Write the structure tokens for this entry.
Amino acid sequence: MFDKFKEWYENRHDYAQAWKKQTGGKVLGYFCTYVPEELLIAADILPLRILGSHEAQDVTEPHIFGMFCPFCRDCLAQGLKGRFDYLNGIMISQSCLHIRQTYNSWVKHIPQEFSYYMYMPHGVQTPHAYPYLRGELEVFKKALEKWIGRSISDKDIDRGIEVMNKNRQLMKQVYEFRKQDNPPLTGLEAMYMVVSSQMVEKEEHNQALEAVLKELPNRKLDRNTGTRLMIIGSEDDDTEFVEMVESLDSTLVVDEHCTGTRYFWNEVEPQKDRLAAIAARYIDRPPCPSKDWPERKRFPHILQLAKDYNVEGALVIQQKFCDPHELDMPALRQMLEENGIPTYFLEFDVTVPIGQFKTRVEAFLETFALPDLF
Amino acid sequence: MTKKEFWRWPEYRHTVEGIDPKNGKVISGGVDIGSVSSKTVIMVDGEVFAQSVMRTGSSSPDSAERTMNWALEDTGLTLKDVQYVVGTGYGRVNIPFAQKAITEIACHGRGANFMWGPTVRTVLDMGGQDCKAIRVDEKGKVQNFLMNDKCAAGTGRGMEVFADLLSVPIQEVGDRSFAVKEEPQSVSSTCVVFAKSEAVGLLRSGWSKDEVLAAYCQAMAHRVVDLLNRVGVEKEFVITGGIAKNIGIVKRVEKELRIRALKPDQWRDDPRFDPMLAGAAGAALFAKVLYERSKG
């Protein structure tokens, strides 16, 4: 029943090109989940998150610094290899330095009909962030209107908000099932679900989610749940890794990734000023660590997730050289361990050494499962 | 003329005298298929009875069979008599006759506890292709661990490459690395390939082989001390794996850590304490408990 999500994830380019042909609409590739998809949907544009392909490549060397993360490198490689040539435009919402380099290099090397850098504030904890972002959304809306050649009405924005909120609600409902003692879905299936929502038309994704929600109450998996794990960290769509972890008598029951809960956890709370409502949603969302300062507001949220999902241990991962996550990790691991949740750290690259990682994850899991052998 | 293989460490088998397996209640086996060496320990009621160490071949199942059969040779036992076998090491899932696979991290923790006693808290396992710093409790249960996995620095295979490069038999590397007037500067790179190029340069500029060995041992020790410091070193401290038999590394690690390793030489008098066999011993101990549990 989750096959559709996997199919979308694996054939994202085919999907987007077919969508374009069928609707005659524009497809916009975006970096970072701070991009306000509500406005893109209001403009009848298909937002498509640009992710890597987890293959070795040799095309980005002159364009990205050596100590920038493998994820931003992998994303740029997709552009330089022409895999996103069908895009009508690209945009980024200001986030970490590394992915900004990907955006800038992409704009420089791959001609675009439309490109946009949205000044999403880093200082989301100041009250000034709300009016600031509202203003930026206004500017962005105008740029979009100019590009598509029509104005975007309040009704259009309401539709954008509604479909995005519905998508968030439905995915949250699916996540509720992961709280069960024996969750009827795996972490891998949940990953396919969330990542594919960043790639396909939201209405269609919502229909698939509704179908899943009908069947989930009666679904039983033919596998042991094993140790209940949480996975926390940078962008992560490494399905091979997740599959390996779940082959070792464990289940990933919840995550804290921008390819997971950080993407969809909170909704736009409607208010008359639509742009202010959207701005508030992005300012108040579970933050990326690049924006989570001076107070680390993400930590209590992570702990709450761990408790709600009855997590026994946490895998803390980061893309190599991901400074915002790396800076958070010592404090994050300490916080979890003080709350009785052992952690294990792994550093990801474009491809991961799956055999070595298997030994490490297995040894971590043995610290839960082996006590009666001593 | 065939080239002498200086990297080749001695393969051996050993039976402990004075143990009659017929009088034992549980005969358990631990098989550790590492990237470089394959080891078997056969235990009778939790005491080492027979063991073997040999080179790992290209096939894990074959290596497992060969090391097990060799350990059983002349003991009067056959594989059928071994009631439970636990496999460990990187080839652990490819051991046809093992009933269970457990990681080498858990097995080295347990094995170190068996060989050196319950005071062991930190285990440095220096294997053929990776290094692990393991913190254990008084039962030998893993509390925390770190593993290097990105290069061959600090690994047995790296040392083998150096023995071959310098035409020094690998068992002599440790002693010869101290046959220098003063400790030279360490090689700047622990990457095996770069360190090899650097060593060739040093030899050309007049360094003796012993000096180059000292410089490499020092770099390797420094590298693993970094790993140990990240996991935190608590007494008592022991080194397992093949490199634990290289005094050139052991002493330099001790010096840098300012902690002495517990009885690093006991294997010389008693092969039951061969640090290369810590993983297989841990596996055999787990096998004993698993067998007992399976019988209720």
